[in-house]
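Handout, section 4.2: multi-component inputs.
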Amino acid sequence: MTEEQTPSFNERISRVSFRVAEHLETQKAGHAAEEANQVLQRVRAAVDEFSSLRSTISELDDGPIKLRSVNSRLATSIGKAKVTLRRTSTQLKDPEREVRGLLTSPSMNSAIVDTERLVGDRKGAIFAAFDGFKMKAQPEDLRAVRADGLEPLTLSIKVRKLQQAFNSSTPTSVGDIVLAVDRIQKAVSEWATLKAEVEAAQQRVPPVLQAFFERLNGPQGHVGWRDIKDEVRSWLDTGSNGNDYVVVRRDRFA
Amino acid sequence: MSSAKICWDWQELLGVTQIDAGAMRVGDPISDAAFLAVHQPVPIGRKTRNKTSLVDETALLQAFNQEWNLDEPLLVFVTGDVGSGKSHMVRWLKSSIGNRSDRHIVYVEKRNTSLTRVIEKVIEGLESASITRIRSALNDVSAEAQTLEQAKIRLLNELRVLVETDPSTSLVVRTADHSTVSLADQSLQSAREQARVLVGDLRLSEYLQRPGGPIERITRLAMPRSSESDDDVNENDVRLDESDLRVDLTQVEDLTAQATRTISLLANEQLRIAVAGVLDHYLPLAKARVFAGGTTDLLELFADVRREVEERGQELCLFIEDLVLLHGIDQQLAQALTVPAGPGLCRVRAAIAVTSGYLKNVDTFNDRGTEFTMDVATTSVELSGRRRFVANYLNVARLGRQALAEHIASSGERSTPVACIDCDVRPECHASFGATDDGIGYFPFNEHSIDQLVGAVSATNFRPREILRQVIRDGVQVADNELRTPGLFPSKQFGAHLDQTRSRVPVAIQQRLESLSPNFEQECSLRNFYSATPPSSTAKLEAVATFLGLKLTPLDDDIEGEVPDGQITPPVEITPPAIQKSVYERWFHETQGRLPAAEANKIRNWFFNQIYTRMSVGPYGHLITRSGNTMSVGALTISRDKNFVIERSMGGGGKTSTQGPVLEFEATGANALLFENIDRVESSAMDPDGDGSWYFEADRILSEFELDLAAAADALRVEMDVREHLTVLRLVSQLADPSAAPNFLNIGRMFQRPVTGGDQARSKFVTDTDKMRRRALEAIRLRFTQAQGAGASSLLDAGAIYADLLSTSKVRHIEEPGASEALRALREFHRSFSTASWNPIRATFQKVMQQVGAVDSFGDAWKEMSELIETAHQHGLLPHHDSKTRFEEALTMLSDQLESVWRFLVKHQSTEDLDELVWDIPPDSLAQLQLLEKLVTECVAILDHLEKLAARGDREGAEVSRSALSDSFLELADILDEVTRA
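Output:
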């Protein structure tokens, strides 16, 4: 067995020179591939986005929401983009065509950019349509009704829950929009059945207590001790009604 | 037989010479008796606006005691330097006026004084309601600030509060030299800020409080003083000045950034002065708050005191022994004292002792009162007065203070009895040592010794304290120790601080006395201090000596009988010297003085010349040559400046030689005398002194040195044979081509001094072996010239040793067995030269080898490397932006010799004994190797970097498949169809 000979200084320089030359060639090829890879990633991202949007758009179009249509200029651009994508797809199958040239052409770049703009446009259309639907769907009387003091307490909680369905903000994900639409439609329907019962309960709230709630919910947001009449005191002392109220000294009141 | 006996009690003398009046208690009958017994009237100066006139103490008494019907206060200031007797005079004033019922007397002593105590003194015996309240506040103060540590902290706190809260927008502060500095706006703000950090920062305030630091010093002086303390207070010690704020960084740790900044800012002297001025400005108030009770208002207090004294129908009579001690309340006190008397306010008269400089600081006192100064010229005090000053203390020491007090108490007299009256040796004692007119003996001094010693400590102004310390106390202490052994007093200890070398007895006489007198020390002391005409003896000096059991040595200058008064040597001229001394005597007497270069070189020259002559004719067998101030004795070279050394002399006497013996002369009286005689001979101006005995001493010194020199030269004598000498020359000369056949050209090189420079190891070898080479050369030369005379040798003479030359000209190293001592030494030099040459070369060589391994050709390597670097540079692949430049620069530094150096080292990389090879190392090898190492390091770093880069590139660059792209494009187009269709 012979010991491996350590290369001389001169040999090492030669070897590194060769490796550097190789490296430079590889580097050149690598740049082209990197560019192609970037294009591919953008295309795949657009495909994924549209796949997710496609079902949402379809479900919404079947329901109470109608999306605005794509504006004509973008529609024209998208038309061109489709042509470019299909043509390039065919050309890529020809090994004689240089990949880098195909991918870096202006028309190819426009096609991808327009596709990405369409993704943004459709997302915006969905959120705008949902906001419009929510505003229209909320019954005026549900918005106005005061849940404080309603008896029984469960009725008060139900009213607050229905009101909250309209007050919660728009979902951040397109995928959640369909569920949010369902929730609102359900609330509208529940309110229709609950409305009469709420009106009857409102009649039962004594006027002093009503006045107390009005001031409490008014612009001041608080009432003075003198406004705590016997009826109010009695209501506060009942069950857990008083749990949400505190007495604060004036000079500590922010 | 001595008649002398100790007629004093040492403890009594110590007690009565307590340095200050302030150290003797006021009101104590014993102290009072002693005080009056030692008091000696001396002239004092009365200061007016333009001049100072001499008056006696009664003038002071009159000035203070005069009828005074004005409302303005009567102020008398007794000023003077430290130790001039100010406090003594205030005390005398107090004892002179006695107790009068129309005066409320307040006496503020130095002893045991504090600020609190001063106020207590002022209100002592008074009982009004407000005074009772103040007394209570003072009790609180003394209850609060008892320990030094507490007081220091409180003082700093008060300072901090004052610095931080004072709203003043301008301040005029005083500096240590009594000048003033105005601070306003920015300067005041800056000074206050740094002052605040200084007293507020934890570490810095700890530093200010450190033992021995300024806050401790100031606090100690404001607190009650020890009763044993007998020193005056330096007025600067009660204040803060810029030197107190110089922070020693080695003594403070863990400083905050702010504190560090303050310290660096305080390096500026101007700022330091300003900050110290600010702190000093607040210091009195801070001290008053800490030590006198924050609530005590002295103006109010004095008003109360004066009201109560007025009610008693008295005037306030105030004595202050030292105003400096009142720093902190002095300004307030000054204001309080200067308030005119009026309805309900009594009159005030005050006598205040204070240094002149401090008085200027107390603004309110400026231009008020009468100033008497104790700073008077010694000559204004008569001789009899000076002698009496000393005698009074001796008298009290003989009587004893207790006996004195009892005598005064029983007799009712204020006059002091004379202790000598009952002494059985009084007649002969007084006849020999003298006495005052009323019979107080001067023993153990006589009038001349008192005059001499008092003159020495009071050269210009009369200095009572120094007389007490250095004349009476020191002199009597020596006598007290030595008189117990007959013939011992007065030894060299007597007056040692004042005239250690007995400057009135010339060295020549001292030398003679040393050899002739059995009591040399005592005789020198007597002739120096006790003689009317030093150094001559007189009949009276003989009587003093006889009384002490001594016998004087007859000298030519001695005087028979007594000296007329007019011829007595004036005493106060003890310094500067009474006798015109030569430079050599001054060199001996003045321990700080140096012998001037001219005289020192004259003496060195004389000895150098004498030695040269002696060595030249002496039977030593060495070649003696001389060049300028150097002399060669065989192989030994000595120089005038390095081998002849005179203590405390100019002109090179401080340097000592590393070669040959050194003749050293200490600064003794004998050497001074010797030099003086040499000088006389050299200058031919006068004959040498006396009987020429000095020359025998010089001859003895020269003979000893001559023998030492010859022995040292013998030790260096070359004892090798010619072949060995040639070996030395061969090895040292480093023949350029050791393998070449010896010829005259190469042999000639053996005799040349090798060139030094460049290679450090070679230069050191040449220097180390230079002496050896010269010795070898000299030996060869002596051989050529048959060692006769100093004739120059010639290369032609080499014929006699040609065979030896041939055989040694190829020597490259020294064999151990049989080598002489000198050759072994050379071998060691050679070894260390070889080690010093090889070690760095081999170390560098190995470093390069580790990096590059074998090298086929450096030339090819650099060529290929250059191309590689160029390519990598173009593509931005090099590790650093300047890698290419660094490589190219390093490459240009290499010489063409590198290949040969490298081959030489590769060839010998396994050779063990390299000593012989050291001659063959190609020149400049180490430098070339170091450059190579630098270049190779650069190359290897580039190669490593490129290798890594290339390997990483292998992993990249995988091509994206066309089909994946094609399929994705189609899929996207289809989806777009769907979306847009919807």
